[in-house]
Amino acid sequence: MAGKKKNKVRSIITGHLEKIGSEVFEDYKSIITDLIRGNQGIYALFKKDRLYYVGLARNLKSRINAHTKDGHQNKWTHFSLYIIRKEDHIKEIESLVLRIAYPKGNKVRGKLKQSKDLRPLLKNRLIEEWEKRLGGMIGGRSKPAGRIKKRTDGKSGERSLKGLLKNWQRLYTTYKGKDYKAMVRPNGVIEVFPSRERFDSPSMAGIAVTKKKTINGWKFWKYKDKNGELVYIDKLRK
Q1: Has residue 224 been placed in a domain?
Q2: pLDDT confidence tier of residue 40, bands split at 50, 70 and 90
Q3: Which of 158, 209, 213, 219 is deepest in the core (most CB within 10 A)?
Q4: Going by DSSP bridges, is the β-strand pair 178-184/41-47 parallel, antiparallel, or unpaired?
Q5: Taking 90 as the threshold, does the pLDDT of residue 232 lie above it?
Q6: Is 0.70 surpassed by the pTM of this model?
Q7: Does 206 fall in a domain?
Q8: What is the average per-residue pLDDT within 215-227?
Q9: Which residues share a beta bridge with 169?
Q10: Main-chain dihedrals φ then ψ at residue 46, nearest 5 degrees
Q11: What was the pLDDT predicted at 5?
Q12: Selection from 21, 143, 12 nearest residue 88 by Cα
């Protein structure tokens, strides 16, 4: 029985040149034209061994050639280029390279428009771990210095959302035309942004936003259901 053929993954990079002297564009333009005619991709300009500039181009040859005459003239000595098969992710690739290398000649840092910054989540996880370890060392419940005191509006003091939503679930609301966000921590506490205040109940978290004396937080905050639609957290109690 013949074995199954493995699906070959097509590389997005179909050709490259690395650390080529800038004089090639002056003395051997026809050869460069034949090699990269009409191709798109990412290119990098170097001042000797130091990265100076990163860019993308729908036409690599004309773009690099332009840099021999524009404001980058005489600021680079070598170039590298990478021909990319499709345009779908070419801008993202450029942004990634810019964020990693941040070359001197680039004035704008790469933007990751649809990428979520995980720093706040990392910070929260580290705080949770710190509290856990400190509690194990000295006993009892502990909290970092400067942490804002949590408040509750329930008689029993129970955390209303504990177990009802996923850990680190986002909450959303709009009040007086302004959007607000909050996050449900693993212990059920609601952390409101950007103040980073923490509350044991949706109502107290809502009061922090509205500055009202009383509010029904269950009909104030919303979360995204499995269909990605925003619904009031009051639905969780039904």
Answers
A1: yes
A2: confident
A3: 209
A4: unpaired
A5: yes
A6: no
A7: yes
A8: 91
A9: 184
A10: -125, 145
A11: 54
A12: 12
